[in-house]
Amino acid sequence: MNGLFDLPSDLQNSYWGLIALHLREAMIPVLAGLLVALPIAQLCVRLRWLYPPVLWVTTVLYAIPSLAFFVVLIDYTGLSETTVMIPLAVYSLVVFVPAIVDGVRSVPRETLDAATAMGFGPVRRYVQVQLPIAAPAIIAGLRVASVSSISLVSVGMLIGNQGALGNLLNSGMIYNQPRLIWLSVVGTAVLAIVVDAVLIGLRILVTPWMPRGTRKNARPIALKDAAR
Amino acid sequence: MIRIDSVTKRYPDGTVAVDRLSLEIPDRSITVLVGPSGCGKTTTLRMINRMVEPSEGRILLDGVDIMQQPVNTLRRSMGYVIQNAGLFQHRTIVDNIATVPRMLGWGKDVARSRARELMERVGLDASLAKRYPYQLSGGQQQRVGVARALAADPPVLLMDEPFSAVDPVVRKGLQDELLRIQEELGKTIVFVTHDIDEAVKLGTMVAVMRTGGRLAQFAPPAELLSNPADDFVEDFLGADRGIRRLSFFPSAGLELLTTPIVAVDATAEQIAARGSADVPYLLVTDLDGRPLGWSEPRDLTAGQIEPERLLPYGRPFVAERDSLRAALDGAVLSPTGWAVAVDGEGRAAGVVSQQTIGEAIRGAHAAAPVDAKAGR
Ligand SMILES: Nc1ncnc2c1ncn2[C@@H]1O[C@H](COP(=O)(O)OP(=O)(O)OP(=O)(O)O)[C@@H](O)[C@H]1O
Ligand SMILES: [Mg+2]
After folding, report:
1. Is the Cβ of A132 closer than 8 Å to some Cβ of chain B?
2. Ligand 1 pocket: which of B13, B39, B53, B164 to mutate (most atoms <8 Å of CB)?
3. CATH (one of 3.20.20.70, 3.10.580.10, 3.40.50.720, 3.40.50.1240) for B261-363
4. pLDDT tens digits, residue range A103-156?
5. From A110, A210, A211, residue closest to B84, measured CB to CB
6. For residues A122 and B70, what is the distance between their CA atoms, to the nearest angstrom?
7. Nearest ligand, CA B194
8. The CATH number of the domain where A87 resides is what?
9. For A174, how many CA atoms within 13 A lie in the half-sphere containing its CB?
10. Does A4 reside within a domain?
11. Which residues cross the membrane (chain A) (predicted)?
12. What distance in Å separates residue A124's CA from the closest CA in chain B?
């Protein structure tokens, strides 16, 4: 227990193991949220009247504290990673739905007309034209959702040490070791920064067609974050 | 042939955009739909590729109702070009052009080499192939739009105000290019514009539509200019339709005078001999025969002719090729009132007075409306 990265044995994990776990617990919900949001957003684009109520629902879901989710979910999924990940996936919808809807709507009318006129069916048009053009907006949403999710995973410590790096906070207090608390906070922050940088790289990679300079416009919507 | 047979389009909100329109669009020629904003041009065009479904009536393509074909098959057999090109911003220029061939199942390489071939055809430099649309000017994007529509070699081309978002100089270039391409390819083109000059320039047949989606007149441009069906069409053609109509009269019949032309190294005898009572001025040319300017014979001294001191000769017209409009323009622009005719190489072929041009115009008017394609 002397090295900087040595952890108490009751955590049953090394520091790097916790980081990997943290990453998994944060990113699986984000990807699941994205998969769920895609069809929902497409429905909202098709049926305009659906968009405001859907937005409202995602906002209300976002407002439910994770603890409340845990209380309900524990009956079904127990004290498991799944119980932590489900609310995280639900929260990500508040970012993804508007990001995708706005991105898809930003495709110029004449581009869509041109696609239709060339004989694109609706599915082909969505996959080959609308989604690629919405990609910058979607990746911007992905950045917000990922960073937010990474910070939120820590609450998992409340249900039997399912909070990955968050568990160190608890241990730090129990063993009165500020080093562990620092490891948790700094580790989470670095993880968030690294993931964000990777996503920026991804965006640059998939959008060689964007004029330089406007790339920065794809900055994510202000981070809505609350203490939960 | 595309036959529009008593077609009406009523939008769900009750707007009648097209009202019992019937048109026969001839094969392998450009038919222009022209009319004021909101008269139903776009709606008509989009009914041809079924982006809009008619409420009543039907449209026949080579005698077969277009509703009988699967919609996407129909659309892939018709190129479509719109204002601002509507390019796919996320694809390179070659891939934009190769879109329809790829959808038709062509291999990637075949489709791309076809795309490069088309870039050349529409006058795009091969170096632009790998660029993205944002890296092109409006005029270049519009050319890509035309190339993309032509990519799978469809027999029909639908064009909705394709050139209206570019400046006049670029627009003229694109129009000339379209006429050239059409000469080579002979597509059946339906072209929408609200610019009557563009309609007259490009159309083999011009359909003038009026607000409410009704046909006002369907005629070749020369006839439109000489015989507008009613006040609406006449108004729409604008004030100077008389002058514009001259575009359809060839200058070939004009009698050109070659006597009043001297070279810059002319001798005193030549200057004296070429001046006459009928022609108060002499046209001075350089040693190759290219016009330099006008002068009165008495102001010319053999061996000392200074080109800078000559009167400007306006804009010459090309003998045999240009129209009477160009000849008249040349005469009006020249301070002497004489127009200069040149040959294909720009060498003076003769001169002609406003008066002679005026007589030719009166003669042409007396004859029946002239062949629509003469000298543009
Ligand atoms: N989707 C629609 N729903 C209701 N009305 C429509 C629709 N599209 C067009 N219209 C109406 O139909 C009429 C004809 O429209 P259209 O677009 O065909 O005109 P246009 O001749 O192409 O005009 P412009 O030169 O301005 O492009 C207009 O009054 C327009 O407002
Ligand atoms: Mg229109």
Report:
1. yes
2. B39
3. 3.10.580.10
4. 999 999 999 999 999 999 999 999 999 999 999 999 999 999 999 999 999 988
5. A110
6. 14
7. 1
8. 1.10.3720.10
9. 10
10. no
11. 15-38, 50-72, 84-101, 133-160, 180-206
12. 10
Provide, as residue numbers in chain A, all residues whose Cβ is less than 8 Å from the Cβ of B88. Answer: 111, 114-115, 129, 133
CATH of B2-248, one of 3.40.50.300, 3.40.190.290, 3.100.10.20, 3.40.640.10: 3.40.50.300
**For residue A119, which residues of chain B lie inside 8 Å, CB to CB?**
71-76, 100, 103
Measured CA distances, A198 to A84, A139, B168, B328 (Å): 24, 11, 47, 69
Task: Note whether ipTM > 0.90 here.
Answer: no
Longest dimension (CA), chain B: 83
Q: Whose CA is nearest to atom 7 of ligand 1?
A: B11
Q: A192 is in which domain, residue-wise? A: 14-226
> Domain segments of chain B: what residues?
2-248, 261-363
Tell which one of B41, B51, B82 to mutate to probe ligand 1, the residue whose CB is within 8 A of the most ligand atoms: B41
What is the tally of structural domains in chain A? 1
- Residue A60 maps to a domain: yes
Assess if residue A172 is contained within a domain: yes
Per residue in B53-108, pLDDT (tens digit) is 999 999 999 999 999 999 999 999 999 999 889 999 999 999 999 999 999 999 99
Q: A164-212, pLDDT tens digit by residue?
A: 898 898 888 888 889 999 999 999 999 999 999 999 999 999 999 998 7
Report yes or no on A193 lying in a domain.
Answer: yes
